[in-house]
Design goal:
Strand content: 15-25%
Number of strands: 11
CATH topology of the largest domain: Rossmann fold
Mean pLDDT: 88
Low-confidence stretches: none
Shape: elongated
Largest sheet: 5 strands, parallel
Structural class: alpha/beta
CATH architecture of the largest domain: 3-Layer(aba) Sandwich
Radius of gyration: 30 Å
Strand order of the largest sheet: 2-1-3-4-5
CATH class of the largest domain: Alpha Beta
Length: 324
């Protein structure tokens, strides 16, 4: 394969910038072109009792896979069906209660015909995204979303570039409009994203805190010798003072250093820090991290409205969970 010589009147940086600017301008044109059909498409997806089936071929198929994944992750059951595979049995994945979102720039790809016919024969709702309002796909659709007539930004004006960017953005616009109309909230988002950094951001304190016998609980009048044994035994570097289960103070390594003079002759209440920083079990772990970082502490007592001790959360465990 022989590579052509670089164009002398341009640089790679200029090429990249011109592509991005051209595609950004195309998205602006697309935004201005949205009309009542977009609203109808959102309402159709919201009202379906089935799933959103996204389909396409070629580059439109690649875009369709991402659109289906976006819908599925934001509360709308969705999956992708390859338009060509549909003719070889995958039409069985589509039911009358589903809505089909079919992507094709030309709207005339031969592989679409069986899928279009199937939706018309069985009354399956069909939304299309295409670049030709007069195409077979657009004309057969219940709702036709038509992309503006903007040239492809590739060097020869033929490779799907601008059109796929607009299709992907239009899919995002549909997904976001639907999720907002549904009132999709962070708690629901966490249900579909329990793993990795995203999932960690939605962990609640109650899911990560230490509870029960492992808590380093001591009484106000407990001798410091016993307190030190409790702190050493748990390995948390902290002791929680509670009377009748109600938080009254906390002892940290810093408190020990500040009270070294005659430490072993004292009681827990003599050494404790009163009114320590606390947090509730329903708070996000990320909020707990912010409190600990802001106050330069490594642990927080978890309490209820009556200041009853429910547990303890440590900065180290937040780090291990991937929150930081």
């Amino acid at each position: 394969m022989t590579l052509s010589a670089p164009r002398p009147d341009t640089t790679a940086l200029q090429d990249g910038q011109s592509v991005l600017l051209a595609e950004a301008a195309a998205l602006g044109t697309l935004a201005e072109a949205l009309d009542a059909r977009f609203v109808q498409a959102v309402e159709m997806i919201l009202s379906t009792r089935g799933r959103l089936i996204v389909a396409g071929i070629g580059k439109s198929g690649h875009v369709g896979r991402k659109i289906a994944a976006t819908f599925a992750s934001t509360g709308t059951p969705a999956h992708f069906v390859h338009a060509a595979e549909a003719s070889h049995g995958d039409l069985g994945m589509i039911t009358r209660e589903d809505v089909v979102l079919l992507l094709s720039k030309s709207g005339e790809s031969a592989e679409l015909s069986d899928l279009i016919s199937y939706t018309r024969r069985f009354g399956v709702s069909l939304i299309s995204i295409s670049g030709n309002a007069e195409s077979t796909l657009a004309q057969k659709s219940d709702i036709a979303l038509v992309l503006p007539d903007v040239p492809e930004v590739c060097a020869i004006g033929m490779a799907p570039t601008t059109s796929t960017t607009m299709s992907l953005a239009l899919g995002d616009a549909l997904a976001v409009a639907v999720m907002r109309q549904k009132g999709f909230d962070p708690a629901q988002f966490h249900q579909f994203h329990p793993g990795g950094k995203l999932g960690a951001q939605f962990l609640r304190v109650g899911e990560l805190m230490y509870t029960g016998d492992v808590l380093p609980l001591v009484a106000e009048d407990q001798p410091m010798e016993d307190v030190l044994m409790r702190m050493t035994g748990t390995g948390y570097g902290v002791a929680i003072i509670a009377e009748g289960g109600r938080l009254t103070g906390i002892i940290t390594d810093g408190d020990l250093r500040r009270n070294m003079d005659g430490l072993m002759t004292r009681r827990a209440g003599d050494v404790a820090t009163r009114d320590p920083k606390t947090i509730g079990p329903e708070a996000l772990v990320s909020e707990a991290v912010a409190v600990m970082n802001g106050n330069k502490v490594n642990a927080l007592c978890v309490i209820d409205e009556a200041r009853q001790v429910l547990g303890m959360i440590r900065l180290h465990d937040c780090l291990r969970a991937g929150v930081i």
